[in-house]
Design goal:
There is one protein chain. The protein is of the alpha/beta class. The protein has one domain: UDP-N-acetylmuramoyl-L-alanine:D-glutamate ligase (3-Layer(aba) Sandwich). The protein is built from eleven helices and ten strands. α2 links the parallel β2 and β3. α2 packs across α8, α5 packs parallel to α6 and α9 crosses α11. The longest helix is centred in the last third of the chain and has 23 residues. The two termini are 35 Å apart. It binds ligand NPW, adenosine-5'-diphosphate and magnesium ion.
Length: 282
Amino acid sequence: MKVAIYIDQPEILKRYKPVNSHTHKGIQGHALIIGGSYGKIGAVSLSSKACLKTGCGLVTVFIPRCGYKIVQTANPEVMVLTDLSVKYITRIAFDFVPQAIGIGPGIGRDIETHTALHRFVKTNKTPLVIDADALTILSQNQQWLTFLPEKTILTPHQKELERLIGEWDSVAEKFEKTVAFSKQNNFVIVMKGAPTYIIDGETIYKNTTGNAALATAGTGDVLTGMITSLLAQSYEPVDAAILGVYLHGLTADIALPKTGYQAFIASDVIKNIGKAYLSLEK
Ligand SMILES: NC(=O)C1=CN([C@@H]2O[C@H](COP(=O)(O)OP(=O)(O)OC[C@H]3O[C@@H](n4cnc5c(N)ncnc54)[C@H](OP(=O)(O)O)[C@@H]3O)[C@@H](O)[C@H]2O)[C@@H](O)CC1
Ligand SMILES: Nc1ncnc2c1ncn2[C@@H]1O[C@H](COP(=O)(O)OP(=O)(O)O)[C@@H](O)[C@H]1O
Ligand SMILES: [Mg+2]
């Protein structure tokens, strides 16, 4: 296995772009988060809030109708588009051009959602982050991978990675297979875990922030929103993945002395994004 590049604060400061004082919401990027299904609207609610809190100017979600009031109430700053279907997504449609799209949190695996995802990937040209059930659906339909834009960011946890690349017998083989998958498809892979690695072809980055407090429901959905936000703010895909993973882990390191491991929840990641950014300016 090639030696990994450690992602610490000096590496982050090479990539981080502070906000320009003359900016406005129209040039801070408009992100679209697509996901949610009955019982899993929370995933998209968390993801879209994290997206806004990571600095994106505008955030829209595309969700099934059952999530309309939930997201509008939980996150009034987020705009909401709905599918015709009540419980899950059946046809993805929107009438604006986002700078980045995050797809998958809470989206479920209904067969009609498979069809909607197929139609979407066949026509989409917007920079993309793919997570959760959208990854699982893709794993079952690998012929769709060729439709995805160059440097699409995939954010699998261990099980989702296994569904994509198959089983491995050793850590070395896991990396070999993931590097080969990334090279073959020209994807950026965020290999989530403790620690998280970012794989861009032959280049492997190892994150240095984060702790076991992150082992709680929804923290991956939050990470998808954060990376999509950075992508919409014109970061290169690999830099969006690296900075997103670093800031996400940093929130848990900052919060840990106050919450301890057990009481930390995904909303605490979102609450501490501001402090994580501020620590970069010190
Ligand atoms: N509030 C909401 O709305 C929430 C909604 N959510 C949404 O739910 C949907 C399903 O997502 P999901 O990840 O729970 O299900 P799935 O892909 O079947 O994986 C589960 C299997 O994988 C394994 N496994 C998991 N993590 C692992 C790890 N780190 N390392 C290793 N293994 C790991 C685990 O295996 P086990 O260890 O139990 O054997 C288990 O069998 C998705 O759309 C998501 O966005 C959630 O985010 C929660 C909050
Ligand atoms: N023990 C741990 N140490 C560090 N990070 C962790 C640990 N457990 C989980 N995480 C992080 O938490 C996130 C969990 O993502 P995921 O499994 O997709 O959760 P969910 O689908 O519930 O949102 C990932 O970013 C992962 O790296
Ligand atoms: Mg997840």
